[in-house]
Amino acid sequence: MPKKYFFNNLAYWTVVGTNYTVADAKIRSRFAITQLAIEKIYASVYSKGLRDFLVLSTCNRIEFYGCTSVDTVQRLVQEELNLTAHEWSSYFYSKSGVDAARHFFRVTAGLDSQIVGDYEISGQVKKAIQNARDSGLVSSITDRISNYALQASKEIKRKTNLSNGKYSVSYAAAELITSLQVEKPDKKILIVGTGSIGRAMARNLIEYFPQGNLTLTNRTLDKAWSLAEELNVSVIPFESFITHLPDFDVIITTVESDCYLITPQHIQKGRGQLFLDLSVPQVIDPRIKKDPSTIHFSVDEISDFHNKLIQLRNFEIPKAIQIIEEFIAELLAWQILFKNTEVVQNYKTKVGRMLLHRANKESKIEKGFSGLMKKIKLDGYTGCSVIQTVNELIESEK
């Protein structure tokens, strides 16, 4: 069972992970985990006594956040991902305390995304937090950090141009298709996978290519049909989509798989198709590019293409960082109060007992200790300030 002070102490809030800055899409595919695997991890860490633990898995990163010792989180990550010594030292980073919180703020705001200002990441963070909460792994410290991070992200969107416009991996893919196949507005497009990225991709394509012919497929066909009815597009069975590949000009994958779903043997040579692999792990074998008429982009290549189009966004980064630092200051102020709430409450109870029969004791005690908490917020906790407050309350009753 972790020590009690892990549960409410920012100093022990830790992140261990990897992202696009240290590992490309092929390497990240090795570390990607499914939602089912995340649920198993949550059950395991809960049984070990942790009450703050969060897994954030996107196409850009896989990160593990926990309020416990750094060694505990590192050991868990190494075990769950079965990492070699080389993989651990080459592709993984760890941060703790304020540095970990600041990193989480940057991730949530899109500052740490492959496409700077990616507006979809905040939704992914919210979903990850809710999944952890459903498993009983979001207590006071993670709840407060995530609340401040989401508030900072919202403020950045409101006060800067960092996220203006429709900038995300799914929009980057749509713009890439436009740049490569402008001569064919009625192109036939297949999206494999209708999860969050697949849904965003489908809606973007309807906007970009109103004359196009969009088809969806998904392992759970009901999900594909639900989206297809909303957008008035077609659906094909997942089990047979490979046989239909030659029918499409563009194939986009956003689906989970532990092996390649599309390989060179599935490609019709000379057909001239565009393949966009937004999946991590990758599900399209890059060797399909051996056919000169076939074009293939990984999620990293799509992001790199789009970043070149939005360099002006970098001028907004300093403004966003300043907003993050303002919320970090609020988090630190809250932590000072939170760490000392239990101590102050104990004194408050004792004073209440001492003044048991006095009139108006509740209002005087509340006023006195409210002033104490404000003083702690401004100057930090000191035993002298507590003693002074207690003495003043007792003296006022003499």
Report on this structure.
The protein is α/β, with parallel strands linked by helices and 398 residues long. Helices cover 50% and strands 12% of the residues. It has 14 helices and 10 strands. α5 (98-109) crosses α12 and α13 packs antiparallel against α14. The longest helix has 38 residues, at 317-354. It is globular.
For the biggest sheet, the summary is:
6 strands, parallel
Shape: globular
Could you give the order of the helices and strands? EHHEEHHEHHHHEHEHEEEEHHHH
Strand content: 5-15%
Radius of gyration: 26 Å
SS content category: alpha/beta
Ranges where pLDDT stays below 50 over 5 or more residues in a row are none
Distance between the termini: 47 Å
Give the number of helices. 14
How many strands? 10
Residue share in helix: 40-55%
Strand order of the largest sheet: 7-6-5-8-9-10
Whole-number average pLDDT?
A: 84
Overview in brief:
The chain starts with 12 loop residues before the first strand and ends with a helix. It has 14 helices and 10 strands.
Strand and helix map with partners:
Layout: E1 13-19, H1 25-31, H2 35-47, E2 53-57, E3 61-67, H3 70-81, H4 85-91, E4 93-96, H5 98-109, H6 121-134, H7 140-159, H8 169-180, E5 188-192, H9 196-208, E6 213-217, H10 221-231, E7 234-235, E8 250-253, E9 274-277, E10 295-298, H11 299-307, H12 317-354, H13 361-379, H14 383-395
Parallel strand pairs: 5-6, 5-8, 6-7, 8-9, 9-10
Antiparallel strand pairs: 1-3, 1-4, 2-3
